Amino acid sequence: MQQPVIEEGAAYEPSVRSYDDLFPALPESNTQSQNHNTMGQWNNKMRVGSSVITQVFRVPFEERKLDGSQKFGEGESIQTCGNIMKETGAHIEISHGKDQSLTFLVTGKQNEVLEARRKILTHFQTQASKQISIPKEHHRWILGKKGDRLKELEKQTATKISVPPMNDLSDTISITGTKEGIEKAEHEIRVTSDQQSKKASERINVPKIYHPFIVGPYNEYLNQLITETGAKINVPPPSVMKDEIFIAGEKDGVLAAKAKIEAIYKQMEKKCTTVSVEVPKSQHKYVIGPKGATIAEILHSTGVSVEMPQGDSATGTITLRGPHDKLGLALNKVYEKANSVRSSDVEAPSWIHKYIIGRKGQNIKEITQNLPKVHVEFTEKEDKIKIEGPPEEVEKAQEQIEKMAKDLIKKLIFIEMQVDPKLFKHIIGKSGANVNRLKEEFNVVINIDESGLIRIEGHKEGVFTTKQELEDRIRKLENEKEKDVIIEQRHYKSIIGAKGENIKEVREKFNQVQIYFPGAGDKNDIVKVRGPKEDVDKCCRYLEKLVNVLNESSYQIEVPIYKQFHKFIIGKGGANIRKIREETHTKIDLPAEGDKNDVITITGKKEDVEEAREKIRKIQDELENIVTEEITIPPKFYNSLIGAKGKLIHSIMEDCGGVAIKFPSVDSKSDKVTIRGPKDDVDRAKQQLLDLANERQLASYTAEVRAKAQHHKFLIGKNGANIKTIRDSTGARIVFPSSTDDDREIITIIGKKEAVEKAKAALQATIKDIVSHFDNIIESDMAVEPRHHKHFVARRGEVLHKISDECGGVMISFPRSGINSDRVVLKGSKECIEAAKQRINEIIQDLESMITIECIIPQNHHRTVMGAKGFKVQGITSDFDVQIKFPDRENTDEYPLHGQLNGDINGGPVRHCDVIRITGKEENCLKAKQALLDLVPVTINVDVPFDLHRSIIGQKGRDVKELMDRFDVHIVLSPAGVKEDIIKITGTPVNVERAKEALLEKVQDLEADRKDRELRSFALKIEVNPEYHPKIIGKRGAVITKIRKDHDVQIIFPKKGDPDEQIITITGYEENTHRAKDDIMKIVNELNELVREEVQIDSRVHSRIIGSRGRSIRKIMDDYKVDIKFPRGDDADPNLVIITGNEESVIDAKEYLINLEEQYLQDVEEQETREKQHTLNIHFDSNLSGSRSREANSNGFVVQGGPWEQRAPNTASVTEFPSFGRNTEEPQASPISGAWGGRR
């Protein structure tokens, strides 16, 4: 460092500094040192505000309440202070002076200290009382919200204030307490009363017709009046038919505003005259202007008010009101505005409107860009275009649009085609590829309607070419067929291949067909193949062959191998498992490392899979002592040993170390069960199986009883009643032989020995009774014409079985087919045979009375009449006991009619394929015929307004599809281009009527819903100062959400900066909107009553007042029930803080904020001083280091005013050592300049 240079011969003066400068005293909280030098305060930390305060006050002897005790410092005083401490939580110290006065030191939180002070003064100081008269209307301001203001005043003044209740007419307020407290409380009460005396409100009735003259154009007069008087003036808006004007504010301002309004009213009442003019209702909007701007303009320029008729009024009369000499000028302006706009129509078909508009409105923009005041309106349902605007501009626009319309009509045409909707997806193509290609290639517009209508629009050549291509495509599609191939989903991955390579080869091989696989979520095994008939058949055969190959190569078995041997089967680096896979051409899957499953799955051809299994087992056998044992268990016990779903046998396998237990297949007829695994585990499994088999053996004692097969049904009884009785009584199981058994007479009884013997005895007794009953069996015969034999033996002898069951099991034998005989043999008891003969004769009589009638129904309806899988016609057959035969649909030859037509063919020739034959009793045939005719579909038209069609269709056609499914009908709605008010329903007459009723009910519901929506769309607009919008919305929208829910309305607030940012729109039922408006206006009125106070708070302490994340300021706002807004960074005045709330709360909050400012400002200033001192110390250190370098001619460092220069303190001085408790005059404080007293 460069040393300072001292000129030769210059005298050196030592540095002399005072002790106070070098060693400053610590700052004191209450007293400021007379020496304002702030040096040394850098070492002091910033003070942190405390919520605990200490207050000292004294009760003179002459004002004390004496308790009769003569002991110094004792008596009830200490006990009373203890009680007060418990009640308030404050700490109290009491001191008795020599002059018998009491001094109290109270420490605690502010509210605790104030409450303790009030109680102390009540108990220890004599109380006075005073009554003051305050106007009754001011009492509520003294009380405050819920009496909070009064309670706070009582705390601060340590008094008890009694305010008369509301029903008491007295205006006297009583104050009890100390003289000082009473004076302070009285002062505060009178200040509050005086403030309220200055406020007033007035309501003036001024006829509505004069309100425009008071408000003025664009609210100019009203705003000027508010500014001049300072009063708030509320004039009802034009939409509210009220005469009352409300004024509120300071008394002087309210009276001045009232006087000025009344003066304007009286003046205009004398000067005004009226004139009425008829203007067509359609032109009223031009007189009113946007948001009433034209009316305001006329009032501004002429001073005349324009009164428009109500919106629902039929009359077109407009009334002008104002000075007589200005009415003519105003009338001219009204006519000028009314005729400033002309309306004209251009005839143009609705389908070319879109071409006139152009892509994204480009064409119409070119016309209107130079005509900004022209409005062009296109309507879908009308073949015209409406133009509105100034007459000159309308003529220009009309001329250009007419010219464009004529050109388009010459150039463009449209063609409509009817196509089966089933072909739409093929015409449109994937993602619209086919139809988009046609649009781009031929420059046409193609619209496809759900009903089957295709509309092509564009230039003549392009339209005809497109039509020709579509017709060719449709013919090709109609020649195609669709076929289903059943393929299990597990094969899809193999058929499709990686990235679709395999299926791509199939599609290239059969390039004329389309193959559709079900989606991943569809539980469907049907693959659809569509294309030309021959190609579809070839592709299907190819796919079926491919599936067969996959089935052969997807044989799968599971091989249980102990988990510890899996690693040896895999081999080092997977060598073993890879070798087995390559040699056997199989797929081998092992369980994951963490999986407890020990089963290895092998997939491939059957012989290859079995070879792989043996190789894997061989590896396991070589590694461990694996043995295979066979035990003999009768096959009848297999099911019980295996258990439901194999649970029992699996539990045995798990208990015995995972051994493999294999039962022989059913076809093998073997009784050997194989157990494979480690020797010890096999032995344990063997023992468990044998034990279980022995248990089953004990419970499977068997006995046999013989009974003729024809007697079995009598043993069983109706619905098994007889055999169930024997089973329940004995507990034995009884098994009858099946139709496939060789010996059909053996009945087997299984169970415990006692139960079996008991059941056997019961069965033998029953069989004996049946045999004795059938001892009188005889054989008889009867003659039945061969032409009736077919009816009895048809459907595997269904009729004969039924007769046999009804007639006691009688055996009936008809001649075999080919034998020309009418002899029928019956065998059984005499009574049964007679009953059977009688029943056969009845059936024959019915057969002879049967007729065959014809029912003519067009062949294209037969599928509908039959129903899915013929269930409809089967129901008719069983219901009416008839036979119905449908014709061969290929036989289209004309059928000669031999009687009257059924009315089923609409005038066309009857073909053989249209004739259905019904055979049965005449009555039943006629009923069946009618039932068939009732199934013939009919089509009816239902009148439904077109604008409801979309709602009937529903989202993605869901609703109309549900109607069609529910009533089994087909519903066709009007195409969008036609827009007919008709819906067509096709189906059976009954279903059509039911569907029609349901449709009409839905229409009624939609109409009701539409009316309800119209009622709910009532919009009510109210004007509210934008400053109030956040308060109406509430925190996180809580307030506005509650209003919306309470009244079921929608409330829309304007965006900030909108021209109508003061307009709030309420939408809903009219009654609800008014209720919601009342709630909002209630909030607005409350906000209007709030006071707004501006206070200057130093911006340096704003962050401290606000606190971390706003916690402190939120607490202040909650405590004082006010709203406090701090300035933003870009505001003009950074110190301006705005407080809003009730007047008392605002004043209290303001005082509190000012106190906080003073407290925090002191800390801020101290911090700034420390920062300056830190800079000064750095400078001082640099000078000091420079002085030390001058060793030559140095006289040392000189300090003046140190403690060593001061005298010792004077112990006899009353000033330096004051006495405690004496009532002496306080001496004047002398400054202490050092730590050991004043200087000598």
From TrEMBL:
GO terms for molecular function: mRNA binding. Residues 1182-1197 have a biased composition (Polar residues). Transmembrane segments: none annotated. The keyword Repeat applies. Residues 126-194, 198-266, 271-339, 340-406, 411-475, 479-548, 553-621, 625-694, 699-768, 776-845, 849-937, 938-1004, 1016-1085, 1089-1158 form the K Homology domain. InterPro entries: KH_dom (IPR004087), KH_dom_type_1 (IPR004088), KH_dom_type_1_sf (IPR036612), KH_Vigilin_N (IPR057778). This is Vigilin. It is found in: Cytoplasm. PROSITE patterns: KH_TYPE_1 (PS50084). It comes from the Eukaryota. Residues 460-487, 602-629 form a coiled coil. Residues 1182-1240 are annotated as: Disordered. Keywords: Coiled coil, Cytoplasm, Repeat, RNA-binding. GO terms for biological process: regulation of gene expression.
